[in-house]
Amino acid sequence: MAFLSDLLAEPVGQVAIVPFAVAFALALIVRVAGGAGLGTRMAAIGIGAGFFAAYYLIRGGIPSFPPPATSQKVFYVAAAGLGLGMMLDLAGLTRAGGHLFAFLLPAGALYWMRQNQIAAGPGGTLIATLVVLFLVSVVVYWRQAASARGADEPKASSAALFPAIQILVAGIGLGGIALLAISLGYGNLAFALAAATGGYLLMSYLAHLVTGRGFGFGATGAFGAGGALLALAYAAVFEADTTIELVLLGVVALAFVVDFLARPLALAAPPSAGAAARLVQPIVYGLVVGIPPAAALAYAWFALGWRTG
Q: Which of 16, 77, 107, 120 is the most buried (most CB within 10 A)?
């Protein structure tokens, strides 16, 4: 018990170990309990559970409602995304509902997070920021869905892992930029989301290696994990106070755009179905989509000399 208490009290436990373990274990439990159908579709719930477990530990509980601060609104925006995604997957409306809510969810979240400023009369800068964030959100949800297409075919089965890889590398990039320059709290939460995604992804990768079929990501993953990432990105953008911080956050978001190049490259290496392809393709994909976040972090660390403080 003392070890567990110490683990929950330590930053590395709160930010990395707990969300990773929760997501890994819950993905396995849901997959086994739900079977090949529902269990595969809903396994990504582990990412949301891992993130919220970390939020509870890092922030010291669940924020009051209605939340007065942007950092507290992040929790409820992420929770709304996860709940929405689960309902769409359970109802079998993943595709149709995803098309609709990929527009409605970011519009509602952005309005709510900047409600006071909008009510007071938004200036040109705020309007431009909201428009850009909305368009980025649509692209993120689009690539989350598009990158997984064809995963039921043997030669493209690795695509089932691609949406989670996007969240993993973007979460690390967002966490690093936030930690170095914007907010320790947002940085820790972004790293926790990446750790939770890593736990789910490892479980899905192992299943993919053994059976040739990774776990589904679905609306639960796209709106749960993707929605949490976007909520943190919104908050980081609103708190950023220099142009270079905004530029670097934008570079991190290019991980989703690079999917256009990464997906065909990964699925062509090696150009055949089988164990070798299942082993190599997700790694190739991760290396390619990880280039923009890695470049942003490298520039922040070495060129600007930012350090945690």
A: 77
Distance CA 24, CA 39 (A): 14
How many Cβ atoms are within 10 Å of 71's Cβ, its own excluded?
18
Q: Give the helix ranges, DSSP H, for the chain.
A: 2-9, 11-12, 18-34, 40-42, 45-59, 70-90, 94-113, 115-119, 124-146, 162-177, 184-211, 218-239, 243-257, 259-267, 275-289, 291-298
What is the 3 state secondary structure string of 198-244?
HHHHHHHHHHHHHHCCCCCCHHHHHHHHHHHHHHHHHHHHHHCCCHH
Region of 92 on the Ramachandran plot (φ > 0 left; ψ -120 to 50 alpha; else beta): left
Q: What is the dihedral of CA 291, 292, 295, 296, to 10 degrees?
A: -150
- In this structure, the dihedral spanned by the alpha carbons of residues 86, 90, 96 and 98, taken in order and rounded to 10 degrees, is 10
- CA distance to 18, 45, 152, 188, per residue, from 51 (Å): 9, 10, 28, 11
Residue 4, domain member (yes or no): no
Number of domains in the chain: 1
**pTM (global) more than 0.85:** yes
Confidence tier at 110 by pLDDT (50, 70, 90): very high
pLDDT band at 217 (very low <50, low <70, confident <90, very high): confident
3 in any annotated domain: no
Structure tokens at 153: 């075919």
**Which DSSP symbol is given to 36?**
I
Inside any domain, residue 74: yes
User: How far apart, in whole angstroms, are the C-alpha atoms of residue 241 and residue 278?
Assistant: 43
Residue 247: inside a domain: yes
Angle at 297 between CA 215 and CA 196, to 5 degrees: 25
- The whole-angstrom separation of Cα 183 and Cα 27 is 30
* pLDDT of 309 strictly over 70: no
